[in-house]
Design goal:
The structure is a homodimer of 187-residue chains. The first copy, chain A, is built from nine helices and eight strands. Chain A has 187 residues and is α+β, with helices and mostly antiparallel strands. Chain A binds chain B through residues 60, 62, 66, 68, 70, 82-83, 86, 115, 119, 122-123, 125-126, 129-130, 132-134, 136-141, 143-145, 176, and chain B through 60, 62, 66, 68, 70, 82-83, 86, 115, 119, 122-123, 125-126, 129-130, 132-134, 136-141, 143-145, 176. Chain A binds a DNA duplex (30 and 30 nucleotides) through helix 9.
DNA sequence: CCACCGGTGTGATGTAGGTCACCGGATACT
DNA sequence: AGTATCCGGTGACCTACATCACACCGGTGG
């Protein structure tokens, strides 16, 4: 699992053995089981998480109790309630396991220490943040321009595996439609 | 206008006079007038822009010819079609002046050179990218959870000045509703 | 074996918002 | 002045999707 993290980092910045050891020393590995929460709404957000294996949902629950899924975090994803993480305020989102999951945790102080100790990783995080913000913009555009059916078809095309792994109810909460409408789209 | 850029950078990372001079040498200042395009769909995207003054829209036009506004770029904003910029592919978005506008331009090679020459600025861009991606996530959430009316009221609360500066038609294209519905919301 | 529950389909009905068509006031161009 | 173009309001109608209600199936645990 260390190896996987190393390859992930090295897809962006090459690292010597010593550099990787230094980086690794800032992370801690943890395992969670289905239905466990890494982040709960209203609680502090200690870490950002790199997902080694498993699947999680990043979700907001509105006043009416309805769930809205911001993203599914799969293998090789970074996930957290980044607003709450960076500002050290209570979470407005929950991060919950949909499957048994292994992650590397990075606390905020460790994140800052790591960037200071190894500026290369600052480049890595800059790269990830840039990609993340481009993806988010794409999703905004897709919410602005396309119908529920089109978004579902896009999702099928881009993440066919996900559609298998996840109950339709959750896909609906991700796409921004009701369970029932999603069900009727297959026709 | 140099002073404004300097203050903007220094809100995140302090700079010596020499450092700022070095940074500044990578930018070029330009002025555009209302209705001019900094980026056109289908064209290459030479630069990222820091807006000194004025107002622009970042917009996508769909097959039906309808405009969807991803963001309004105001004073102190960074804007571009970042996907096209970073991947050096043709733009899928247009960036057009809504008012006479002054910007600093940063080409992609200059961006890389600047980060290499002055790692502090890497930290600056990381900071901006992080904020940008948090804001985008917030907007996704707002599109998933709230009605047109609520989004309009949020916009009124958060950017009252913008609502004055911009025709309602464009606000509608930003909020993801038709001009007509937005017009009826005031009631 | 049965009760329960998570996941899914489907009908009936309600509604937010889209679309089309038209109008009237304000600039702006010549 | 006169005309076009932008901007915004409003009525009539339509459609995509939400909501509510119910029914079915396949576990899983007492």
């Amino acid at each position: 699992m260390e190896q996987q993290l190393r390859e992930h980092l090295e897809q962006v910045v090459p690292l010597t053995d010593e550099e990787f050891a230094l980086a690794l020393s800032h992370f801690s590995g943890r395992r969670f089981r289905k239905h466990q929460f890494l982040i709960q709404e209203g609680h502090p957000v200690p870490c950002a998480y790199y997902v080694v294996s498993g699947l999680l949902k990043l979700v907001h629950t509105d006043e009416a109790g309805k769930q809205h899924i911001l993203s599914f975090a799969m293998e090789d994803w970074w996930e957290s309630d980044f607003r709450a993480y960076h500002t050290q305020t209570p979470a407005s989102l929950a991060l919950e396991c949909l499957e048994d999951t292994a992650v590397f945790c990075l606390t905020l102080p460790d994140y800052h220490r790591l960037c200071a100790a190894l500026p290369k990783l600052e480049r890595f995080f800059l790269h990830k943040a840039t990609l993340g913000s481009m993806a988010a913009q794409q999703r905004i555009l897709s919410l602005l321009t396309t119908s529920a059916r089109q978004r579902y078809e896009q999702l099928l095309a881009q993440h066919p595996a996900l559609v298998q792994r996840v109950p339709k109810t959750l896909l609906a909460a991700y796409l921004g439609v009701s369970r029932e409408t999603l069900s009727r789209l297959s026709a």
